[in-house]
Structures are given as structure tokens and as C-alpha cells.
């Protein structure tokens, strides 16, 4: 869920009406609903939709929808979460999924599909300075041109626009160069915006390999060995101070140590409490110490530069989704 939401334009939170005590005045949402919604906010998903399902299976669907919607409104208001809509649906009967069922449960809006089709799509982070993680290096051995580099660096543009004539710097080697050719995913020469695949050829031979970054000199990145992050812990084994993991950021891997667990977020009242560990499916603030600097920016400024995952070094499972704070 976290991996998909990190690059999504919209998300639908599905709620099972039959699992809620909707007839009670003080309706309590399921912890999973609260956790997933809060994660969507942390991951900066632009549009969040609540779809209340199985209302056809309850005795009084109209008051059930109204009470559940009221509980959702109270939760999102207290958590400062912006949502796009709250729709009553029946997947079994097809109500409000593709075709609107006007007046059902007192709802007179569009169907779920109609709403999704009208939501705005994000255009990537093309308005930021250029950054590019290198995924693959193609060597052009048949080229006899010695006036420029003979390698094409392939990857996906994280931020900004790849354009001919840009001056760039290489991380971590600090070398400088200029882009002389930009290829799109069909190997045609053209500018490439953030979120799309590109191949870059530079004006000189430089030492660049998979995992390195090609950056604009003005790219707002922090080359830090210590980061304060918000972490969604996914592993069954609780997170504790002192453990070492692999951090995967772009195509670069680096060992990180859990220096300190600062807070644990209570998804019921959204309070932060001091913690010594993070159990499975919990969210908290953590201080990480890196073996080597990483090119990062706060997640609030860039979803691509401000996110990474932690990998268990022994069994190689994804242990956490990480959002950089500072």
C-alpha cells in the first residue's frame, strides 16, 4: 500500500459498513481505516476518496451512511486531512460504482468511476531543480567522437526537466559536466520532464555508475549522514535502537543505523508519545545515521527525493517506508 501510494494521484479508502457499529452515536472507525488514511496524508496523495461499501447488507443503509460519514468527517477534521468525497457504494449490486444510483442512501453525487475520471492528475515535480538517479550506463563503443562522453546514462528524471545545455554535477564524486544530448524512452532527442525515463549524454568522460546522481547545481538537496524521518514500520519484528538496515534511495543503497526512536504516533487520538520501539504497522519519528551521505530533500518539498525504503540485511524484506523530515 505504501509503495503504491507514494506515487499515486488518488487513493480510494474502502470501508466495510458491516464491520462498524453504525447505529451508535459515538461510532469508532477501524484502526486500519485511520492508519491507511493517515499514511495517505503523510505520503502527500493529492486526492483521497472514502467509499463506504456493503450498505446494501445493513438494515437501514441511509442512517448507516450518514453516521459513518459523520465519523469520517470528525476524524479527518481533527487530523487536518483533506478529502475529495465520501461515496456510498454496493460492489455486489453495482450501486454508485460505475453508474450513479441517484438518491440511494440520500446521496445525489457522481459514481466512483465518474469522480475518479474528473480528478486532476499531477504533472510530476518538473517545477523543481533537475535531479536524476542513474539506473544503467550504456557504453557506446562504436562511437569515434572524442569531443564528448561516449556513455549514455539512463534512468527516470526525479525532479525538474532534462535539457541540452544544462550544467550538472555528479554525486558523490562532485564532478561537473554539461548535458549535450537528451533521449526520451524511444531514444528520440527531446526534453524530458520529471517522472519520465531519459538517457543523458555529457560533454566529457566522467566517473558515473549505477546509484550515482546527476544534479543541477541549484538542486535543493541535503547531503547528510544524519536524517530525522517519519517511518511507517512494516516488519513483524519491532524496530529498536541500534539495528542496521540497508536504505534504498533512488538506485543507491547505503547502510543506516537506527540512532534513536523519537516518537510513536497514536492513530486513535493522533498524539505523539516517546517510544523505545516501533511495533508492526506503526508510525513514528526516527533519527537515522547513514554510513555515507545520501541526496535527499524534505518529503514536504519533493516526494521523489524525500522518500526511501529500509531493507532487512539478512532476509532482504522491505522493513519500512521512510519520509525525510530534515
Characterization of the model:
This protein is mainly β and 326 residues long. The protein contains 4 helices and 20 strands. It has 3 domains: 117 residues, P-loop containing nucleotide triphosphate hydrolases (Rossmann fold), CATH 3.40.50.300; 85 residues, Translation factors (Elongation Factor Tu (Ef-tu), domain 3); 103 residues, Elongation Factor Tu (Ef-tu), domain 3. A hairpin with a 2-residue loop joins strand 14 and strand 15. The longest helix has 18 residues. It is globular, with a radius of gyration of 23 Å.
Quick overview:
This protein has four helices and 20 strands. The chain is mainly beta and about 325 residues long. It has three domains: about 120 residues, Rossmann fold, CATH 3.40.50.300; about 80 residues, Beta Barrel (Elongation Factor Tu (Ef-tu), domain 3); about 100 residues, Elongation Factor Tu (Ef-tu), domain 3, CATH 2.40.30.
Give the helices and strands, then pairings:
Layout: H1 2-5, E1 10-16, H2 31-42, E2 47-53, H3 61-78, E3 85-88, H4 112-118, E4 131-139, E5 151-156, E6 161-162, E7 167-171, E8 176-183, E9 192-193, E10 197-202, E11 213-215, E12 222-233, E13 239-240, E14 244-249, E15 252-265, E16 272-274, E17 277-278, E18 283-296, E19 307-311, E20 318-324
Parallel strand pairs: 1-2, 2-3
Antiparallel strand pairs: 4-5, 4-11, 5-10, 6-9, 7-8, 7-11, 8-10, 12-18, 12-20, 13-17, 14-15, 14-19, 15-16, 15-18, 19-20
